[in-house]
């Protein structure tokens, strides 16, 4: 049997998304006079994190929003980081808050993530947001998993009834992507470092998601023909968590590394910041217009929270 594997081009799709976001941001500015702001919080000096935060800030500015960059020193305490988040929560000009993961080990990251106000949790990192998403209620999804789902859906790939195997169960990636696949009626298996017989489990997968954080850990010969192969990993030398180069010719579809999941993560974060801005800023202008009896043309604003 021969296959024509589909390259899931996250780079191209993220560009398309950015173009549509430019229009939505222009509409927000035209109607409210406010330029939406994404606050990015980076703690410490991890070079990869610095690059990721810079890329996110740049993407924000490309679509016409502002980014407010907060860079805190390595020795920041949990209390100081919580205070910084409180300040951003209370700043009406800030529509979304991104706290870059990971923070230094001495900080209680979960407590800090959960301090982010639900309506500003555009990176989808709070327990509240996760719970709502898992219950299939409107919420900002965790950015990387939500980006993966957008990519799969954009290419109309089958999810319902399929066996999805997610390797990794981190709070920002493995667990939420498993819940999102479940919400789309996949039959989901979540694997982790204590899983026994991993190769055999992966061999049963119609959809494989690699979210392990180890270069080419998932071997090509564990993956059956015609599977959808999603690689969230990114390591030096442009390789991911899966042996993509060895499996792509017999996959139904696959994400390239780089250019697959990475750009979709950023596009999703920016999109969710635009949605947050629409909800927060149009709510204000609508109240104002009610008072003045004016008419406001609303963009698509999902009732999120
Ligand atoms: P993480 O927090 O380190 O989680 C790794 C997961 O892999 C854990 O659940 C761990 O299991 C599991 N694991 C480790 N060794 C394993 C083994 N031998 N067998 C099976 N499972 C094993 O990593 P993460 O933050 O989820 O990131 C995963 C990957 O995605 C990394 O390569 C990261 O760079 C990438 N990533 C990419 C983006 C993007 O925008 N492209 C965003 C986020 C992350 P336990 O839970 O049992 O420890």
TrEMBL record:
PROSITE patterns: THF_DHG_CYH_2 (PS00767). It catalyses: (6R)-5,10-methenyltetrahydrofolate + H2O = (6R)-10-formyltetrahydrofolate + H(+); (6R)-5,10-methylene-5,6,7,8-tetrahydrofolate + NADP(+) = (6R)-5,10-methenyltetrahydrofolate + NADPH. CDD domains: NAD_bind_m-THF_DH_Cyclohyd (cd01080). Pathway: One-carbon metabolism; tetrahydrofolate interconversion. Residues 142-279 form the Tetrahydrofolate dehydrogenase/cyclohydrolase NAD(P)-binding domain. NADP(+) binds at residues 168-170. InterPro entries: Aminoacid_DH-like_N_sf, NAD(P)-bd_dom_sf, THF_DH/CycHdrlase, THF_DH/CycHdrlase_cat_dom, THF_DH/CycHdrlase_CS, THF_DH/CycHdrlase_NAD-bd_dom. The keyword DNA damage does not apply. Catalyzes the oxidation of 5,10-methylenetetrahydrofolate to 5,10-methenyltetrahydrofolate and then the hydrolysis of 5,10-methenyltetrahydrofolate to 10-formyltetrahydrofolate. The keyword Oxidoreductase applies. One of its GO terms (molecular function) is methenyltetrahydrofolate cyclohydrolase activity. Belongs to the tetrahydrofolate dehydrogenase/cyclohydrolase family. This is Bifunctional protein FolD. Residues 8-123 form the Tetrahydrofolate dehydrogenase/cyclohydrolase catalytic domain. Pfam families: THF_DHG_CYH (PF00763), THF_DHG_CYH_C (PF02882). It comes from Fulvivirga kasyanovii. Keywords: Amino-acid biosynthesis, Histidine biosynthesis, Hydrolase, Methionine biosynthesis, Multifunctional enzyme, NADP, One-carbon metabolism, Oxidoreductase, Purine biosynthesis. Its EC number is 1.5.1.5, 3.5.4.9. Homodimer.
């Amino acid at each position: 049997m021969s296959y024509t594997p589909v390259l899931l081009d996250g780079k191209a799709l993220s560009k398309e998304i950015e173009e549509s976001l430019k229009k939505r941001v222009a509409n927000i500015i035209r109607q409210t006079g406010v330029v939406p702001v994404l606050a990015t919080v980076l703690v410490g000096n991890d070079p990869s994190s610095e690059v990721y935060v810079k890329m996110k800030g740049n993407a924000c500015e490309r679509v016409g929003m502002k980014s407010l960059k907060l860079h805190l020193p390595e020795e920041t305490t949990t209390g100081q980081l919580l205070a910084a988040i409180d300040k951003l929560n209370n700043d009406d000009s800030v529509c979304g808050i991104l706290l870059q993961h990971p923070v230094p080990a001495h900080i209680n990251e979960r407590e800090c993530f959960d301090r982010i106000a639900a309506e500003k949790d555009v990176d989808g990192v709070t327990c509240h947001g996760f719970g709502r998403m898992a219950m299939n209620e409107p919420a900002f999804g965790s950015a990387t998993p939500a980006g993966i789902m957008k990519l799969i859906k954009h290419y109309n790939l089958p999810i319902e009834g399929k066996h999805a195997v997610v390797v990794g169960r981190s709070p920002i990636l493995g667990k939420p992507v498993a819940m999102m696949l479940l919400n789309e009626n996949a039959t989901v298996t979540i694997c982790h470092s204590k899983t026994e017989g991993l190769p055999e489990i992966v061999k049963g997968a119609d959809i494989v998601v690699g979210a392990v954080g180890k270069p080419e850990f998932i071997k090509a010969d564990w993956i059956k023909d015609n599977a959808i192969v999603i690689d969230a990993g990114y390591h030096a030398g442009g390789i991911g968590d899966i042996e993509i180069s060895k499996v792509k010719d017999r996959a139904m579809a696959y994400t390239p590394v780089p250019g697959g999941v990475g750009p979709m993560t950023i596009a999703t974060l920016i999109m969710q910041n635009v949605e947050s801005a629409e909800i927060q800023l149009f709510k204000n202008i609508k109240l104002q217009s009610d008072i003045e009896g004016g008419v406001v043309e609303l963009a698509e604003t999902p009732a999120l929270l």
